[in-house]
């Protein structure tokens, strides 16, 4: 049996380019025989972390929303993949909120080792994702067993769905095949 791969698509836009990359990565990982869970944040009820730090004592968040189930999926995954649109040269707000709400995992026994970033932007230069990558790397540093395993950037994506069939689409599919 392959690895347990969880792909989190953080865009709320229907047919978004980062969602297209998430689908491509998931497809490749599945084709390679891995167990793939694809989570879309569209329609999810996710509240902001309040910083109460109760989770650091109990291992559970005091906020009861859709994050509770997703935290457990993340904790038991071997590979995590975050797909985000780039807004103002940074990850989407919903991705940042998702990462913040994974705070209960800080004291948990997490399995994930490899963490990937998939990003799309209207900007053509890969530099556009530099801060998003840095932000994710900061989160990864809190989990000693894990490391940044790679990224795929789809630049020049000015309309939804443009990433389908692009070089970045194929790169994301191949990255999924090689987890």
UniProtKB/TrEMBL annotation:
Coiled-coil parts of chain: none
Keywords noted in UniProt: Flavoprotein, FMN
Domain NADPH-dependent FMN reductase-like: 4-127
GO molecular function: oxidoreductase activity
Top-level taxon: Bacteria
Gene3D superfamilies registered for this protein in UniProt: 3.40.50.360
Matches recorded under InterPro entries: Flavoprotein-like_sf, FMN_Rdtase-like_dom, ISF_SsuE-like
PANTHER family: IRON-SULFUR FLAVOPROTEIN, NAD(P)H-DEPENDENT FMN-CONTAINING OXIDOREDUCTASE YWQN-RELATED
Full protein name: Flavodoxin family protein
Organism: Dialister hominis
